[in-house]
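Re: weekly structure request thread

Next one in the queue (295 aa):
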Amino acid sequence: MDTPLLPLRHFLLGLAVVAVWGTNFVVIHVGLQHLPPLLFAALRFLFAAFPLVFFLPRPPVPWRHLAAYGVLIGAGQFGLLFVAMRSEISPGLASLVVQAQVFFTIGLAMRLSGETVRPYQGVALLLGIAGLGVILTHTDGSTTPLGLVLVLLAALSWSGGNIVARASGVTNMLPYVVWASLFSAPPLFALSFALEGWPAMRQGLAAADGVTWAAVLWQTIGNTMFGYAAWGWLLARHPAALVTPLALLVPLFGMGASALWLGESLPSWKIAAALLVMSGLVIGLLYPRWKSARA
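Done, posted below.
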């Protein structure tokens, strides 16, 4: 039996999405040159909500689901990620470490369903932990233990958002993300005011140039409008098993873009860490699908 493949144009569209999501870590680095991290995250979700919220109908899900997803993804995932990327971790490694959300999502789902860890999941988890261990033992001026912990907490928040979205039964993520952003921006603005302070917020806004605002808008136009819309379009037309493995390329684009545009070094330990984490992701995501297809 022949294995189905994505049509070339659809494959290229999916590749464009993961390229945007991967290279976005470099864009985040650019925006953080002038804006405080929590303020940057707050602006990201402000523009993700407005003006799209006036044009997209509210998803037929409870408000509490939108609120939970908005807080977990906004203040949790991106708030912590932006704080870490300000000075505690390089963009390339951040794009890799945050993929631990896959392991967290599997673990949370199993915890909620009462399932036990299967052998292939144990192997995937051990590979991921080994990769993170390599990073932890090689922390330097560009990556610190605090940065690693913050990005892991961001990944945990992302996995919590995944569980909430799955429980919502949502099929079209674009309006879901837009409406949930209404609950992301306010706590981020409040945290920015409380922790970064109004003087830093005002100074950041005054120092922001055209490149900084382009980085902010890219979070909305590239990641939200194009990314979620195109990804949802592909999932509506093809089995998830054909589309979702493309997401494994996100850290490759992230590390590659950081090396090319920012000059981030790629010593052997980073490559080894990437291979370990990526091997864990491949086994965790693709092995059950391969086994099912074989059966």
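The mean pLDDT is 89. The first helix runs from residue 8 to 31.
Next request, please.
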